[in-house]
Amino acid sequence: MKTYTNGLAGFWMSWSVFVTGLLVMTFGIALMIKADAGSAPWDVFHIGLYNQLGLSIGTWSIIVGFFIITTTAFMEKSWPKAGAFLNMLLVGIFIDFYLWLPILNTPDMYFGQLIMLSIGIIVMGYGIGLYIAADKGAGPRDSLMLVLTTRTGWKVQHIRLSMEIIVLALGWLMKGPVSIGTLLFCVTIGPIVGFSLPQCKYLVARLMERGIKNEDFNKRKVRLDHYDGVGKKAR
Description:
The protein is mainly alpha-helical. It has one domain (about 10-215). The chain is about 75% helix and about 0% strand. The chain contains eight helices and no strands. It has helices spanning about 10-35, 40-55, 55-75, 80-100, 110-135, 140-150, 155-175, 180-215. The chain is globular and about 50 Å long.
C-alpha cells in the first residue's frame, strides 16, 4: 500500500530544497556585497536605495519585491504564488542576516576582493539552480519578467536585459556599487546557472525518490518484523 507517494514527503522535501536554495543564493549575494567590487544590477539598486534612504539592504529587497509582486498580480489579475511571496520575504531576511555576521568582512587586498566576488557569483549560481529545481515558482523579478514577455511579445532575454539596465542605471544614480564585479556577474551568471541547474535537478530528483521510497511500504527494504509485526527474536 502506498501512502503520500507524491504528498507529504514530496511537499516537505521540495520546500526544504527551495529554502536551502534561497539560503545559498543570498549567501552568494552577501559575499558579492562584502567583496566591495561591484554587485548584481538588482543589488546595486537595493544598495543605492539604502545609501540614499537608510533602512537596510535586505529591507529594500523586500520592499522592492513586494512592489513587483503587487504589480505582477495586478497585470495577471491573480493572487501571487506562495513561492514568489516567500522568495521576496526570505531573500531580504537572509541578506541582512549574512551582512550582519561579524566574520564576513571585506578583504584588504583587491585580489582578495576579486576572489570573494568570484566565489559569491558561483555560490549564487548554485543557489539559483537549487531554488529553481525545487519548482516552487519564480521569484518576484522573474515573475514580472515572464508577464512582460507575454504582454509585449519580446524575447525573455530582451526583457531581462531591459529590466536590469533600468535598475542598474537607477542604482548607479543613487551611488550603488557599479564596478568590475557588476560586469563579471552579468557575463557569467547565465553560464553558471546553466551548468548548475542540471546538477541541482538531478540532486532534487534523487532526494525526492528517496523520500518516496521511505513512504512507500512496497519499496522499503524488507525486514523480518514486516510479516506479522513480531520480530525474529520474539518468535
